[in-house]
Amino acid sequence: MSLPHLADPAGRYRTMRLIRSFEELALEWVRSGLVVGGTHPYSGQEAVAVGVCAALDPADQLTSTHRGHGHVLAKGADPGRLLAELLGRVGGLNGGRGGSMHAADFSLGILGANGIVGAGAPIAVGAAWAAQRRGEPTVVASFFGDGALNQGVLLESLNLASIWRAPVVFVCENNGYATTLPAASAVGGSACGRAAAFGIPAETVDGMDVEAVRAAAGRAVERARSGGGPSFLECLTYRFEAHHTMERRFRLSYRAAEEVASWRERDPLATDLPEAAAIDLEVAELLAAAAGFALASAEPDPATATDHLYASGLRPRSGAAL
Amino acid sequence: MTLLSYAKAMNRALADALEADPAVCVFGEDVGAGLAGLTPGLQQRFGAGRVVDVPLSEQAFTSAGIGAALNGMRPVIELQIPSLLFLVFEQLANQAHKFSLMTGGQARVPLTVVVPGSGSRSGWAGQHSDHPYGLFAHVGIKTLAPATPTDAYGLLSSAIRDDDPVVLFAPAGALGVREDVTAPLVPVPIGAARVHRAGSDVTVVAVGHLVHQALAVAEELAGEASVEVLDPRTLYPLDRAALVESLGRTGRLVVVDDSNRFAGFAAEVLAVAAEECRLLAPPRRVTRPDGAVLPFALALDRALQPDAEQLRDAIRAVLK
Ligand SMILES: Cc1ncc(C[n+]2csc(CCOP(=O)(O)OP(=O)(O)O)c2C)c(N)n1
Ligand SMILES: [Mg+2]
């Protein structure tokens, strides 16, 4: 059974709109100082998260990245609790402990966004291996950027997944840049070529087209679930905003204005769905309620700062003088 | 009056080193754009062949720096965030640090690793907020933590000229510090501490950005006690002579160190004091908790870092 909220085109559009509007609100909250530390906006890449998650079952899992809001929302996380996490409130997905780069919801199979590029892929492989061993039908989707293609650990993960025939779908969101570094000058060979070298079926898809992503992800998920091992998808996409909200402090010119404009013309949210306007309204209301929830959520008590440090309950010694 | 910022001072040290020695080069992510504040303008000035934008392959480009160092270069590696040091721990601890001894003195690895913005950056959460200088000091890699713009200039200059690997932590909490610089900027020797404020009742050893907090607290307590503020500047090798000399006069010790408590840098300072000095009161330290992971929420992040109140309490405790 696929994720109910992504079962039809309207649901997929609704979730993409939710992600876009969420990111717009987050940007506003960063600018007004409500969100400390900033965010990595996902705007422009919505079709990737939604297309991939549309091919997943509720019990399937994912690992995400520093640019993780889209993945987390697409898998079904509550936008109010994600906003509360961005604010560092107790009602946040991680109780305010993780923030934008670390949102997780294990009840939904979201094994966490991650602050270290490439770090999610081997975690996905191990999670998939365990599920397979335990006889569970779980498939794990692992999202990462083009920058991660150059992390040794990512290549090691492809190999492990291949020899273990782990039910993983590797999803490379190639948005053309790792911060200011163009993928064209950083990636020797090609993304799919790397996967193919490890014997993993790989395909490149239009990451601005949610249905194309869903179809390709569907094939990959089907292969994983039926014991066919890992697959690799390279989704060609673009981030519409800065790498990180902090970027506006710098005068950077690594992307030509015409390039940004030409990708914006291919906005994944462009649609001729007749119900789009009604959905937009619905999402606006949903997000307003989510914002209300987040803003009303309590600030954590400083006395709880080391809570959860150890799952076993070990309490660390304080840093203050005796 | 020209106010020199910490980031600008490091940028100038690097520019002067690139200018002075064609063997100096820089590897790092987004160094052309100068995103981390260390390299603005340098790629334009010295070319993309010397200030090299590298892919996100920290382990490879750090060890490539070692290889280049073995062949006569003096590479400076910029790591955007402190946790990347964990990724390259093998490269630094097990490769760079061991070449000289294990080749019977045939090889030297003049490699400098700089982290512009170590420790908490407020709102970057646990994976971006560590201060793992103790790990490198423990391994025996020359480890620096300048507190001021002139020391940042001076220590980075010395690090690049040094024939051994050096890791320099530029604490996020110090990057905004500005200083009225009147004298010419010069190298600062590795292994030399600095007394920022002389005092006779208690020695406060403060690391990195906490030097400024210690100076503020010392000033505040001036009516109560005469507080000496000692900045080791180099964490390894530690200037033990300066520490022993200071404690010989004050007999009381507080260490304030923004890193984890257990087996941390402050513990080493306390151990040296216990072994080599006669203290008048049990020493105290103010640190992060054992095994600290800084939570995202600002109030929680702050709660785990040494603060002025804890330092005041510690000073008063040793004065009792
Ligand atoms: C291992 C590692 N290196 C560097 C960084 C700093 N950093 C964070 S995001 C980023 C760029 C990532 O690019 P990409 O993987 O293409 O993802 P995108 O930001 O484009 O979504 C960098 C260099 C990091 N967090 N982890
Ligand atoms: Mg990218």
Automatic annotation (TrEMBL), chain A:
The keyword NADP does not apply. Residues 13-270 form the Dehydrogenase E1 component domain. One of its GO terms (biological process) is pyruvate decarboxylation to acetyl-CoA. Its cofactor is thiamine diphosphate. Transmembrane segments: none annotated. The keyword Oxidoreductase applies. Keywords: Oxidoreductase, Thiamine pyrophosphate. GO terms for molecular function: magnesium ion binding; pyruvate dehydrogenase (acetyl-transferring) activity. InterPro entries: DH_E1, PDH_E1_Alpha_Subunit, THDP-binding. Pfam families: E1_dh. PANTHER family: PYRUVATE DEHYDROGENASE E1 COMPONENT SUBUNIT ALPHA, PYRUVATE DEHYDROGENASE E1 COMPONENT, ALPHA SUBUNIT BACTERIAL AND ORGANELLAR. This is Dehydrogenase E1 component domain-containing protein. It comes from Kitasatospora phosalacinea.
From TrEMBL, chain B:
It comes from the Bacteria. GO terms for molecular function: magnesium ion binding; oxidoreductase activity. Pfam families: Transket_pyr, Transketolase_C. Its cofactor is thiamine diphosphate. Keywords: Oxidoreductase, Pyruvate, Thiamine pyrophosphate. InterPro entries: THDP-binding, Transketo_C/PFOR_II, Transketolase-like_Pyr-bd, Transketolase_C. The keyword Oxidoreductase applies. Residues 4-177 form the Transketolase-like pyrimidine-binding domain. The keyword Aminoacyl-tRNA synthetase does not apply. This is Pyruvate dehydrogenase subunit beta.
